[in-house]
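Task 17 of the worksheet. Students: predict the tertiary structure of the chain below and write it out as structure tokens. Keep your answer in the requested format; marks are given for formatting as well as content.
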Amino acid sequence: MDKELYIIRHGETDYNKLGIVQGRGVNTDLNDLGREQGEAFYQYYKHVSFDKVYTSALKRTHQTVKRFVEGGIPWEQLPGLDELSFGIWEEKENKEDWVNAFREMNIHWQGGQCDLSFEKGESPNQVARRLQEALDVILSRPAEKRVLVCMHGRSLLVLLCLLSQLPISCMANFSHSNTCLYRVSYGNGQFSVLEANDVRHLQVTKNSL
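Model answer:
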């Protein structure tokens, strides 16, 4: 194995809680639960020897993994890991017009039309291209054997398609939740998903209360 990636989604924000559309153009903070989720992840995985922490350029990812960074692990922001931009729908409430627009777009995406985007937004294929650039940066550093990557829900689904060598239209094959972990190994030019949508750290914390 050349490299091991611990890939997580950021903790909860108020926009997540309220169902408000939150993409690349929205730079929200974690809420109290999101900070608790980040702390739970840290407590469960602080024994892991990470060589590097990578995040998107958005502060909800920074706040999720800040305890690892405060502990001295080198940190780098890669804007290529940012969330997909939902364009004119950013910061809109989860009401019928958005639900209908997203449902219709999702049908197009699942049908293979991944060059389509919301008005003034990004398509999944555009996100895939910048994710591939970010991934190439991470893979270009052989001294970093084990890395922690914090990113976003929709961009995570696109990345998982890339890692699994699936069409981007297969995004719906994967699931995610706040601070879920996908543990991935890389060797001989191939990725293997070892753990998927793992949130055991949240259950351990819940049981300790």
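Marker's comment: Residues 3-208 form a domain with the Rossmann fold fold (CATH 3.40.50.1240). The mean pLDDT is 96.
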